[in-house]
Amino acid sequence: MRTISLFPVHSFDIITSALVVILATLALAKAYEIYRSDKENIRYNYLLWVAWVLFAFSVSRAGGHLLKYALLFSGHEHLWTRLSPVVGGFNSIAFVLIGAVTLFFHRIQTIFIRMVQDRQKIEKISLDLLQLNQDLEAIVFERTTAELALKIAHKVRNPAMIIGGLVRRILKDLPPDDSLRNRMEKIFEQVQKLETLVQEFEQLMAKRSYFFTTIELNELVKSAIEMIQPEIEEKGIQLQLKLSTSKLTFKGNARLIKVALVHVIRNAIEATPSGGEIWVETGIKDSRLFVRIRDSGRGIPKEIMAHIFEPFYSTKERGTGLGLPYVRQIVQEHRGRITIRSAPGEGTEVTMAFPTHLTELSGLRKGDSP
Q1: pLDDT on residue 152
Q2: How many CB atoms lie within 10 A of CB 16?
Q3: Which of 12, 213, 249, 295 has a CA between 20 and 30 Å from the CA of residue 76?
Q4: What's the pLDDT tens digit per position in 129-144?
Q5: Which GO molecular function, any one, fits this protein according to its record (predicted)?
């Protein structure tokens, strides 16, 4: 009976086992190099962990084969029979680790993606809030400038008209060759400049740096709430949102309406205690679109309600007293109405109503204002 030598087979097995260890070592070194380039990258972390497990598996497998042949060639086959399940168990553990690492990093990647999305959402909200604040500052600046101009015009108009009237009368009575006439004409020229300046001041209020387009009230309400949702959640307030099932479209400026909505909702947040509730509702009534914001806060005393729309009147330590006056200004510029109902201990309800496009045209035809 001829015996076939297994030496070439054993030699090939030993060589391939060594090659597996070498390749696993190179793969681990490359994975570590990639990981060092960006240690916060979740994929690079996963690659490094898998490379470590594969390296451990290759060492376990190669070590097991070498131990096997060493025991077989030395005549200790019975020892290998006892040790082989242990070696096989190490290999199985390596495969289990690969699966566990994969599942773990899959979950971590999902969480990481959500964190990135949340960060992008927060950045977007921050940019929107910044833009709204800039818009509000622009409104405040424009209105303050216009009001100041009107006050100056009011203070200057009467004296200028009186002086102008007197100078005209004097010029009418003076003979053409009178030496005083030249001086009075110069005074009259300056009076005319004052009158022109007064007209320019009065025109400031009529100027607008924005345009009206067709906008949808429900979308603006949802957008405003989304922007200040972190403030609502931070205070533990329950927000009850009830939007109209119909589209509430009207002519207006989306940014200005959003400024008004954010300011009113933020006032409700400040007035509502932790665990309280805020109700936001939209709808249409009497041919007008409306948004109603109600809170379960402390309410507003009657003596304060009388001054709530007065500029520079504020009960807050760092308040400017310009918020609600400019909210009312925005609403009125949209031919709308704003009403506030409140009582101590009963919360506050703010309703902003806007005419639909057809209602606005009808009102213009009749010549009445909302």
Answers
A1: 73
A2: 13
A3: 12
A4: 676 666 666 666 666 6
A5: phosphorelay sensor kinase activity
Return phi, psi of residue 3, to 5°. Answer: -100, 130
| Dmax (CA) of the chain | 155
Strand 348-355 to 288-295 pairing: antiparallel
- The residues that bridge with 213 in the sheet, in sequence order, are 252
Residue 287: its pLDDT value, please?
82
* Residue in 286, 257, 236, 264 with CA at minimum distance from that of residue 342: 264
The fold of 213-366 is Heat Shock Protein 90 (3.30.565)
Residue-wise over 247-286: b if at least 16 C-beta within 10 A, else e? ebebbbbbbbbbbbbbbbbbbbbebbeeebebbbbbbeee
Cα–Cα distance measured from residue 137 to residue 322, given in angstroms and rounded to the nearest whole number = 10
Amino acid at 208: R
Domain boundaries of the chain, sorted by first residue = 7-122, 133-204, 213-366
Which tokens sit at 190? 């300056």
- How many other C-beta atoms are found inside a 10 Å radius of the C-beta of residue 108? 13
The phi-psi region of residue 236 (left if phi > 0; otherwise alpha if psi is between -120 and 50; otherwise beta) is left
Average pLDDT score over residue span 24-34: 85
The tokens of 147 are what?
Answer: 């009001």
CA gap 3, 1 in Å, rounded: 7
Backbone angles phi, psi at 198, to 5 degrees: -60, -45
Task: List Cα–Cα distances, 11 to 16, 73, 80, 129, in angstroms.
Answer: 9, 13, 18, 72
